[in-house]
Design brief:
Order of helices and strands: HEHHHHHHHHHHEEHHHHHHHHHHEEH
Distance between the termini: 32 Å
Strand content: under 5%
Structural class: mainly alpha
Number of helices: 22
Shape: globular
Number of strands: 5
């Protein structure tokens, strides 16, 4: 068992003396050796990507749909679901979070399906929590459709997901390509499911009518939306009713064609990919959808998707957890970039092997992005092992940054790296949005009305420019030799300035949350000579300092996405402490008391093997809906912070 290197201190939270060079060098050495030791033989890194119990619940439901609930993996996943139950009875969607109704309903239904006694204490507590949260009617669209498949909710009550939406022309305001890439992957197969409305029986003992509130207690959710938003909600609700009316009247003249298009759309995107979109929800929906279309269990399409799901399994012995995706490109780019930034020889064997591996993952096949980006040249990197249709700006920028920090002495490899960098840089620049920022996967995917469609309650229907990605791209452009006066740089700086909050912070879309966004924005801006002494940036400095915890670290709860008053507030983590320190470093602050205490926190929390161990999650999938724990974040970000500090300070 690893233990933190704790040393006596006069007073927790008191001003700490500067750390000695020997202490800092030892911490960096241990962290670097730990990270090098995690590199796999072929040159890449991959940490575990953890999510909540919803994935195990949905996997079990799929296996029941396929008649495979007697498998040992089902028993193992059920044990994990039970262990993730909160003491009060519900299930959360992130560590330390409150019970969430959709996750709790799915977990309860699955456990009842597998034979848990509804009168058992854990089930009774879960039931009370679910009813307190509003019962089944309070769950999201995704959950309601799944419950409808198994006869626990009426199909007629689910928001319509008509496959005919695939037939809408590109000039139409609402069309498939205006949705974010992950929404397309989820909802195209889901539209097939909705069209067929399958019914998979469950035993009588598994039915869950007890999770409906009595009619007299039914709750209508309200919010503070203005009249404009309420008006559009009303119009979309009426349109949803109209679609269902046509559905009941069997007026579906385009249904056959729409289903063919949906099937073909999905099949094309299974090529050169570890499942549709290489993400769990899309893969599961594909299996449901293609079974509805009549594909046999031994059809290569079904078998390929099931193999993709098996790759997401993490067998823990008596339990089994499911990852939402695999993150090797992201982890490899981060690992290589950070090792190079710590002073490791830029021609080190570990970096060379990482470069060779990353080159094998460059996208060379046209994907969905071509519809909004007319550039013919194809490049970029994705997140997973294979996802050829969906490179993204964040991974591409990170890979470019990693490759740019290396010194490749092998002529043949160096030429390949340089060619890939040139291609990817041109592609990345072509993905800049009109507002000057960069999105994750798409360009011009920002029609906010799409967020009000009834089936869009996963809170990720569009993919507009993001502050954190834009800051990261600026780092890449600086390493690629861009001038501060370059138009792309100026537009990106203007975008970040326009998105800064009144208190000086920036929102973090892909990491939690304002600490993450503020670090990346400040870092990107600082690389192009922006005067960090301006009041607007000093507000960010003051905000970061004000959020430091008594133990010297920083933390921010994922609940800050729902409650902005909690921004920058939470138990200290090594990753978020590193982000805060890197944000302060970007403004030139290496000597404040807050910096000393933050660096000391990282040193004290380091384990004997050179790693750190964050309990809290710091990754974001869909804000307010789906969160992540990247298991390598607490290995490589503290190393980057300590090495950056060491290189800037003469100790």
């Amino acid at each position: 068992m690893q233990v933190a290197i704790q040393e006596p201190r006069a007073e927790e939270g008191a001003s700490s003396a500067r750390i000695s060079a020997e202490q800092l060098d030892r911490a960096i050495h241990l962290a670097r050796e730990n990270l090098l030791g995690l590199q796999l033989e072929d040159g890449h890194w991959r940490g575990e990507l953890e999510a909540d119990s919803v994935l195990e619940s949905e996997y079990i439901l799929l296996l029941h749909f396929l008649g495979r609930t007697e498998e040992e993996r089902v028993k193992k996943m059920a044990r994990r679901i039970r262990r993730l139950q909160l003491p009060d009875g519900g299930w959360a969607i992130y560590h330390g979070g409150p019970p969430e109704v959709s996750a709790s309903v799915k977990a309860y239904f699955v456990l009842k399906l597998l034979g848990d006694d509804p009168d058992a204490p854990h089930m009774a507590k879960a039931r009370r929590v679910i009813l307190d949260l509003g019962g089944i009617e309070a769950t999201n669209t995704y959950t309601q459709i799944y419950l409808s498949i198994f006869g626990q909710y009426g199909w007629e009550r689910c928001p319509a997901v008509p496959p005919e939406m695939l037939l809408l022309p590109g000039w139409f305001y609402f069309n498939l390509n205006e949705m974010s890439s992950w929404s397309r992957g989820i909802f195209v197969p889901l539209s097939i499911i909705w069209a067929y409305k399958p019914q998979c029986p469950v035993p009588e003992h598994a039915h869950i009518p007890e999770l409906f509130l009595p009619a007299s207690e039914s709750r209508t959710t309200t919010n503070g939306d203005g009249a404009w938003t309420r008006g559009w909600h009303y119009l979309f609700h009426r349109a949803d009713q109209g679609i269902k009316l046509l559905e009941r009247g069997r007026f579906k003249v385009l249904r056959r064609k729409a289903l063919r298009v949906a099937e073909e759309w999905t099949r094309r995107r299974l090529v050169m990919s570890d499942g549709l979109g290489a993400i769990f929800p899309a893969i599961v929906n594909t299996v449901f959808a293609f079974r509805c279309l009549g594909y046999s269990l031994d059809d290569p399409v079904i078998e390929s998707q099931l193999r993709a799901l098996e790759k997401l399994e993490v067998d823990l012995g008596d339990t089994l957890k499911i990852q939402p995706a695999l993150s090797p490109v992201w982890d490899t780019a981060q690992g290589a970039r950070i090792l190079a930034a710590t002073g490791l020889d830029p021609d080190h064997e570990a970096l060379r092997r990482a470069a060779e591996w990353l080159l094998t993952k460059e996208v060379r096949h046209p994907g969905d992005r071509q519809r909004k980006n007319g550039r013919r040249e194809v490049s970029g990197w994705y997140f997973e092992y294979a996802n050829e249709f969906y490179p993204d700006c964040d991974d591409t920028a990170m890979v470019l940054t990693a490759l740019g920090r290396m010194r490749i002495t092998d002529p043949e490899l160096g030429e390949r790296v340089d060619a890939a960098r040139r291609r990817a840089l041109r592609w990345l620049l072509s993905m800049q949005n009109p507002d000057g920022g960069w999105a994750a996967f798409d360009r011009g995917c920002d029609k906010v009305l799409l967020k009000l469609i009834p089936f869009a309650d996963h809170n990720a229907m569009i993919d507009p420019s993001w502050e954190d990605i834009t800051g990261r791209v600026l780092e890449t452009l600086s390493l690629e030799g861009f001038d501060p006066n370059d138009r792309a740089v100026q537009r990106a700086i203007s975008f970040l300035d326009s998105r800064q909050c009144e208190d000086g912070t920036w929102y973090g879309r892909w990491g939690c949350n304002y600490i993450y966004g503020t670090w990346l924005a400040l870092d990107g801006l600082s690389r192009f000579g922006v005067d960090m002494q301006q009041e607007r940036y000093q507000r960010a400095v003051r905000w970061l300092r004000s959020r430091q915890n008594e133990d010297g670290g920083w933390g921010e709860t994922l609940r800050s996405y729902e409650e902005p008053a909690l921004k920058g507030i939470g138990d200290s983590t090594a990753a978020q402490t590193s982000w805060a320190l890197l944000g302060l470093f970007a403004t030139g602050d290496y000597t404040s008391d807050e910096v000393y205490r933050g660096v000391d926190f990282l040193r004290r929390m380091q384990l004997e093997d050179g790693s750190w161990d964050d309990e809290h999650w710091t990754g974001t999938g869909f804000p307010k809906v789906f969160y992540l724990k990247y298991h390598l974040y607490d290995d490589y970000f503290p190393l980057l912070a300590l090495a950056t500090y060491r290189q800037a300070i003469d100790l």
